[in-house]
Specification:
Helix content: 25-40%
Distance between the termini: 29 Å
Strand order of the largest sheet: 6-5-14-15-16-13-17-20
Order of helices and strands: EHEEHHEEEEHEEEEEHEEEEHHEEEEHHH
Number of helices: 10
Number of strands: 20
Oligomer: single chain
Largest sheet: 8 strands, mixed
Strand content: 25-35%
Structural class: alpha+beta
Shape: globular
Length: about 375
């Protein structure tokens, strides 16, 4: 029997997963309000690597053409020695299908702009600089009290509020992100003519030195080291510190390092691990994206897993005509978790293993083999 009431959803968080699930639910005729804590809608960052299974979801969202025009596509990854000698070229699996490139690098702010435009075009209501301060659930819905003093009533709340999700704690899920022991320096830079794919150098003063083209004219470069007390590093020294760490590396690195001059454009963050093993929902509130799982970017699958969450959850919610029964909604959200958990766990564990090999100094680790085995699984639709 068709539900006589329009179904209503609150999405908390306007990052990749929140924006994606909003667009897909609106396409199904579901009323969606999206709130984002940051008044600028989080249009920040240096670069992002999107592999085929992420591109598959972006095509589902209807934004693939803009992504393709804005980014830089490539189909291989080079493994290099610190002096820049490429000793192995790994040809990536096209995990999104043969009609999509294996990888697109792009500027993260541009991806966010594209997704924000899609949300606005979908007809969703968007409120920036707003948080959910209280959730009160009963059998038929969730009453939400917002930071601006207003209140709303929803059939479902989707928590897409990231690694340090306040909603996760609010609904009684105790898992928290844990540091892995590594940290990353990132910067956007002009693209040297020689950079046409990601190259990764293992060893030297850092665990990993890498870069990824993000457009015809830009790249983002990164250096992974043991994490340090962030309070001990003066943000004004970020550019100097990244140039110091980059100095021993060859290949394109001298040209990249010379362009690192503005400390405000350098980002330093720790790697974290998170995997909520039990149910990802409590009643009518469900987690997606980094709120439910996160891992080091050693496989470049963080955004892909978040986008896949949005696709699977929207598929299940769109197919169900009525959410009136708490039992039927609980079953639907349980099926969402069951569809996602094994795939996400595989990615988290593989990403952690790649990092742990570096921490332990394992020199004969089968990095290409682990990446290849994992990507072969991810070629299957979630």
């Amino acid at each position: 029997m068709t539900d006589p009431r329009p179904r209503t959803v609150l999405v908390i968080g306007g990052g990749a997963s929140g924006n994606a699930v909003t667009v897909l639910l609106r396409r199904a005729g579901i009323t969606v309000d999206l709130i984002e804590a940051k008044p600028d809608w989080n249009v920040l960052g240096s670069g992002i690597t999107l592999q085929g299974n992420a591109l598959r979801v972006l095509r589902e969202l209807g934004v693939w053409d803009k992504v393709r025009e804005s980014g830089y596509a490539f189909d291989s990854v080079g493994l290099a020695t610190p002096d820049g000698h490429v000793f192995h070229v790994h040809h990536d699996i096209r995990s999104g299908g043969v009609d999509l490139p294996a990888t697109i690098g792009m500027q993260r702010p541009r991806l966010q702009e594209i997704l924000c435009e899609a949300v606005l075009a979908s007809g969703a209501t968007v409120r920036l600089g707003t948080t959910a301060d209280e959730l009160v659930q009963d059998a038929s819905g969730v009453t939400v009290r917002f930071s601006d003093g207003t209140e709303g009533r929803y059939d479902l709340v989707i928590a897409a509020d990231g690694l340090n999700s306040l909603t996760r704690a609010m609904i009684g899920i105790s898992e928290k992100p844990e540091p892995t022991g590594m940290a990353i320096w990132r910067v956007a830079a002009p693209r040297p003519a020689s950079v046409e794919r990601t190259d990764l150098a293992y060893g030297g003063p850092c665990y990993i030195a890498g870069y990824c083209p993000t457009s015809e004219n830009t790249i983002y470069a990164y250096l992974v080291e043991a994490n340090r007390d962030r309070a001990s590093i003066d943000p004004a020294s970020y550019a100097d510190e990244m140039r110091r760490l980059a100095a021993p590396y060859g290949g394109a690195w001298p040209e990249i390092a010379a362009s690192i001059t503005d400390p405000a454009k350098v980002n330093y963050t720790w790697f974290d691990r998170l995997l909520v093993e039990g149910p990802w929902h409590r009643g009518r509130v469900v987690l997606i994206g980094d709120a439910a799982h996160a891992c080091p970017p050693t496989l470049a699958q963080g955004a892909a897993m978040s986008l896949e969450d949005a696709s699977v959850l929207a598929e299940l919610l769109s197919a169900e005509e009525s959410w009136d029964s708490a039992g039927s909604l609980d079953d639907l959200l349980t099926r969402y978790h069951e569809r996602r958990i094994d795939r996400v766990r595989m990615v988290v564990e593989a990403s952690m293993q790649l990092g742990q090999w570096q921490l332990d100094g394992v020199r004969d680790a089968d990095v290409p083999g682990l990446i290849g085995r994992t990507m072969s699984v991810l070629k299957e639709t979630p």
